[in-house]
Amino acid sequence: MGLRGSKESVPSSSSPQGTAGDLLLQALEDLSKINFKKFRHALAYGDLQGRNHIPWGRLEKADWIDTTNLMMNSYSGEDALDVAIIVFKHIQLREAAYQLQEKREKGGKAKQLPVCKCVKRPPTLPDYQRDYKKAICQEYSHIKDQNARVGDSVSLESRYSKLVIVNKHRDEEEREHEIMAMGQRHAEIMKEQASSSITVDDLFDPGPDVWTPKVVVLVGAAGMGKTMTARKIMLDWASDKVFAKFDYVFYIHCREGNLFTREASMAELITQCCPSGSLPLDKVLEQPEKLLFVIDGFDELRFSFHLPEPELCSQPKEKSLVEITLSSLFRRRFLPESSLLITTRPAALQKLSRFLKCERYAEIVGFSEVERKEYFYKFFNNAEQAAAVFQFVRGNEALLSTCLLQVRSVLGCCNLTAAGCRDLTAVLGAMPSLAQLDLSDNPVEDSGVRMLCRALAGPGCGTQKLWLWQCRLTEGSCGALAEVLPICPILRELHLGVNELGDGGVWQLSEGLWDPACRLQTLRLWQCQLTEESCRALAAVLPVCPSLREMHLGDNELGDGGVRWLSEGLRDPACRLQTLSLWKCQLTGACCKDLCAALSTSRSLEHLDLSENDLGDGGVWLLCESLGHPTCALQRLWLKKSGLNEETLQKLGALKEINPKLYIGYI
């Protein structure tokens, strides 16, 4: 009789083997649907420490009883329990491993497995620590589903697929080799990486020299899953699955609002990280070696960190600018016994290494073949649709090698040409939940953009963010993009930086922004070979596009004339722009009079970046007059510090008393 027909073939509980079978069946019945699938997958493909694998063909459709029968027939009774405990640990279910081992010992099988020596009963926690873990579980158990109704969310566990993490810092040549690989060769490389991968729980384990790192940097390209991994770490720690040696883990997202506070001590930042409210900070800080800070997205910090030692804080309760507080943590001026886990893109590693000794590097390299397939089935509720899209992607080399999908995004694509865009358009129509599309740093070219625009205009497309920086685009792309803006009102962010669009391209884009149906909120056009003429077009857009909140025009030769045009648009009462970035735009003090006029009348402009421009002392003094005016709404201003004399810097510092909500940063 086949195994799937042998529902009664679990041995009777009167025999030793029956006891093992009962324990195993009970343990499997306690698993969630997702964890049970992970368990079966590990039996087929995981590291079983020398035991034979059970073929996936037998496990794929097996239920709890089938799986128990397969294990009891493949291993002896006690060995089946050994394997189960190994697998529980492998899939990060340490509590399940502990419970199975405990029940086994109570049942008279007291053999202690070497592989289970680290599985211990969780200690009794103080009420405030238990409450903090409970609050973290509630905060991080769900993620926003941008394709659902406002306020709806989905379970993180239901969307998360395991990523391959390698315990090394890869050089640019090795990373480039992987990026250029296509199709099957790319899959082979990922398989090689997966064979030597580590788990998150290994990050702070002792190395071969028995030395335990305190600072770990987790590197990953854009969209590789760094933030998802960081949030999963928070959830797993609070669920007692990882990092048991840390009493508290605090999450600081470098892009979110807790870093926009003008001043804060480290203790106050910790309080902001606590979703349940206050913690007894004195008790929390008593054992700094038990603290872990997860700093997510270091590359998104605009702080310089090049502060003299005397300016740094020495105590975690010392209040200062957030820039100084974080610099003090990174440079280990306080809480040096604590541990740091920092996620960042590769481009920011050099900046990070200037002031922080990174004791261990690890890198997220993407999905393995199995996890890639699993992600599709998690992403789609309809199994047939998931299978169809996965087979389609698998059949296209460019898409197969670029398929680093992670929670509503196609990111980190490599070597995607116009031909690949043709294939991608079919995927966009079939994936309405795909909210983010990042094709940056690929030779997409104008023809590829035109193909994408046809898909973006389709009824099944749900793309909200489109990133196309450094894609070899010219003015020829802008007409198609302009046509899409009013047709695709769900599109909220458009990034076209490092493309030779020129003034002609911006004038074409402006036609789309003029349309009342356009709902674009963020437009990034830095380093696009723009001049004063582009500012003239964009200034006319500001009053008629109330949805536009951010405009990034850095590293273009806009000049003082360009600022004159933009100031006219900003002064219009209908303008709702909140962020304007004009770094490295060849501005001088002559533009400051126009900026002052805009600052004194605009009720919406909150962030202004004028860094890497030589405004001079006279120009900055003019700005100070408007910045100190009661009607000025500006909250953050970035300036170039070099070239300003001490008197001007003191004048800027004095604004703190006049306008406490204003933060001035220097780059």
Main features:
single chain; 667 residues; alpha/beta; Death Domain, Fas; Rossmann fold; Leucine-rich repeat, LRR (right-handed beta-alpha superhelix); 4 domains; ten-stranded parallel β-sheet; six-stranded mixed β-sheet; 43% helix; disordered N terminus
Give the overall shape, derived from the CA principal axes: globular
Number of helices: 27
β-strand percent reads 5-15%
Can you name the CATH architecture of the largest domain? 3-Layer(aba) Sandwich
The radius of gyration computed from the alpha-carbon positions, rounded to a whole number of angstroms, is 28 Å
Structure description:
The chain is α/β, with parallel strands linked by helices and 667 residues long. The protein has four domains: 3-116, Death Domain, Fas (Orthogonal Bundle), CATH 1.10.533; 127-159 and 198-366, Rossmann fold (3-Layer(aba) Sandwich), CATH 3.40.50.300; 416-521, Ribonuclease Inhibitor (Leucine-rich repeat, LRR (right-handed beta-alpha superhelix), Alpha-Beta Horseshoe); 530-667, Ribonuclease Inhibitor (Leucine-rich repeat, LRR (right-handed beta-alpha superhelix)), CATH 3.80.10.10. Helix content is 43%, strand content 11%. Strands 11-12-13-14-15-16-17-18-19-20 form a ten-stranded parallel β-sheet, with no helix packed on it. Strands 3-10-4-9-7-5 form a six-stranded mixed β-sheet, sandwiched between helices. Helix 7 (127-140) runs antiparallel to helix 11 and helix 21 (475-487) runs parallel beside helix 22 (502-514). It is globular.
